[in-house]
TrEMBL record:
The chain crosses the membrane at residues 29-48, 60-85, 148-170. Signal peptide: none annotated. Keywords: ATP-binding, Membrane, Nucleotide-binding, Transmembrane, Transmembrane helix. SUPFAM superfamilies: P-loop containing nucleoside triphosphate hydrolases. It comes from Albula goreensis. SMART domains: AAA. PROSITE patterns: ABC_TRANSPORTER_2. This is ABC transporter domain-containing protein. It is a multi-pass membrane protein. Pfam families: ABC2_membrane_3, ABC_tran, R1_ABCA1. The keyword Nucleotide-binding applies. Residues 207-439 form the ABC transporter domain. It is found in: Membrane.
């Protein structure tokens, strides 16, 4: 209101400078000031909730300016034009009703009040030419008074409405969704972690997540569906999943970037629902897309975020230099961030997340675009954070990275946790056993290797095994369940008989476990809530024969 008052004073000054008596006469000037001030008082809280609709400030500015002009000009002009039809009683009655309805808009109250003041001055000037005095108190109810009263009341009403929206009154009381039922076939490890959270066993954990959910409008399935986990100090927790599984949405809820549909979470004992400012003080965040300013240098970024973190001014230079050395940015620290490569931008974003030694560090795919040397350098930096007794939550598409850093990890599919545990535990529980690769040599020089005896041996010795590859002299089999000692024993005993030149036995990789779960991820289009006619059109498209599609140009 202080800022707006300055603008209003400038407007009044312009009217005074041009000596507009309809607004600057001794009787009209107080009414003009009251109109302008009450307009700002009422329209500001009316426009504020509109900010939730937009993501881009420039788009919001243009759109809301057009809306304000459209309402203000059109509403005032329509009522003014209808008053010109003096002989049409029906239109005049309609105009009286319309003027009462439009009083809910501060734009109309201001515009109509200015028009009425100008018309009143014109009538006063006409009477003055005939030597008669004509004056009406502008604060009269039928004149500008009702406009002022309505704007004063609207300021309170819209302000209360804004507060209710700000504190999610309508979402929590009117639009709250019934909690979804838990999956009966939930994995045992996931169920045990959920039970641990429910029983209060995670009180010492830095990050505690309890039934956290997020459902976007227009979607049937939640983006995140009642996840529960606790991350203690000194642990790197991996969050794996294909694109669209809900990893970034989980991070956005933890950082307060998006609203939580249901559930709760806490960081260092502070709830993300009620103490988000305290959460921010104990959290570092490296987003999926670099949030850096192209015109600032790397060192200036670290200085800026150190100040935001509350680092004492005398320590900022040392803390910034620590971040530069920690992430290997010495060569680029004095250059503008806009000139950095993709890998160096990720390093800078990670350094920003570590500034101030937060208790929890969230890293959303931090090594994207990095070369192997830089990736190893960053891994060492993350390991040092874990050794300091802080917690790290990491998302990545690199299984090698997860095996190098994560003490526990979870695979997320369709917004839910499908498995949870150490890497070796997941390999043993969800892996497809072992992979046996054999290289067969020819019985005599010049002849092609005979693979049939080796194939028959594998099928008889390991029933149910699957042949994954077969080349000129190489066989690869997947054995679902068997003793590792028995596999070696049988292969070694028949090595000479089967002409096996060399062989290897390996356990199922984390990649294979991840791919097996990734197959369950549904597409985004399957979650849309469609109009019945549109849904029918989709079904009709799905059953169209492929031959028909090929024949169409």
């Amino acid at each position: 209101m202080i800022n707006y008052s300055i603008s209003s004073a400038m407007v009044v000054g312009i009217f005074v400078a041009f000596d507009k008596k309809c607004y600057t006469s001794p009787t009209n000037l107080p009414a003009l000031v009251a109109l302008l001030l009450l307009y700002g008082w009422s329209v500001t809280p009316m426009m504020y909730p509109m900010s939730y609709i937009f993501n881009v400030p420039s788009t919001a500015y243009v759109s809301l300016s057009c809306i304000n002009l459209f309402i203000g000009i059109n509403s005032s002009a329509i009522t003014f034009i209808l008053e010109l039809f003096e002989n049409n009683r029906a239109l005049l009655q309609f105009n009286d009703i319309l003027k009462k309805v439009l009083l809910i808009f501060p734009h109309f109250c201001l515009g109509r009040g200015l028009i009425d003041m100008a018309m009143n001055q014109a009538v006063t000037d006409v009477y003055a030419r005939f030597g008669e005095e004509y004056s009406i108190d502008p604060f009269k109810w039928d004149f500008v008074g009702r406009n002022l009263v309505f704007m004063a009341a609207e300021g309170f009403v819209y302000f209360i409405l804004t507060l209710l929206i700000q504190y999610r009154f309508f979402l929590d009381h009117w639009l709250s969704e019934s909690p979804s039922t838990l999956d009966k076939h939930e994995d045992n490890d996931v169920a045990q972690e959920r039970e641990r959270i429910y029983n209060g066993g995670s009180k010492e954990d830095i990050l505690q997540i309890r039934d956290l959910s997020k459902t976007y409008p227009g979607r049937r399935r939640p983006a995140v569906d009642r996840i529960c986990v606790g991350v203690p100090a000194g642990e790197c927790f991996g969050l794996l999943g294909v694109n669209g599984a809900g990893k970034t949405t989980t991070f956005k809820m933890l950082t307060g970037d998006t609203d939580v549909s249901s559930g709760q979470a806490s960081v260092a004992g502070y709830s993300i629902l009620t103490n988000i400012l305290d959460v921010h003080q104990n959290m570092g965040y490296c987003p999926q897309f670099d949030a850096i300013d192209d015109l600032l240098t790397g060192r200036e970024h670290l200085f800026l975020y150190a100040r935001l973190r509350g680092v004492p001014e005398s320590e900022i230079a040392r803390v910034a230099e620590w971040g530069i050395q920690k992430l290997g940015l010495s060569e680029y620290a004095g250059r503008c961030a806009g000139t950095y490569s993709g890998g160096n931008k990720r390093k800078l974003s990670t350094a920003i997340a570590m500034i101030g030694c937060p208790a929890l560090v969230l890293l959303d795919e931090p090594t994207t675009g990095m070369d192997p040397h830089s990736r190893r350098f960053l891994w060492n930096a993350i390991m040092s954070v874990i050794q300091d007794g802080r917690a790290v939550v990491l998302t990545s598409h690199s299984m090698e990275e997860c095996e190098a850093l994560c003490t526990r990890l979870v695979i997320m599919v369709n917004g839910t946790f499908k498995c949870l545990g150490t890497i070796q535990h997941l390999k043993y529980k969800f892996g497809d056993g072992y992979v046996v690769t054999m290289k067969i040599k020819a019985a005599k020089p010049g002849l092609a290797p005979d693979l049939n005896p080796a194939e028959a041996f594998m099928e008889s010795s390991f029933p149910g095994c699957m042949q994954r590859e077969k080349h000129y002299n190489t066989l690869q089999y997947e054995i679902a369940s068997s003793s590792l000692a028995r596999i070696f024993q049988l292969v070694v005993a028949n090595k000479e008989k089967l002409n096996i030149e060399d062989y290897s036995v390996s356990q199922t990789t984390l990649d294979q476990v991840f791919v097996n779960f990734a197959k369950q991820q549904s597409g985004e289009d399957d979650d849309l809530v469609l109009h019945p006619r549109a849904a029918g059109a989709r079904r009709e498209m799905k059953i169209s024969p492929v031959s028909d599609l090929r024949n169409k140009p």
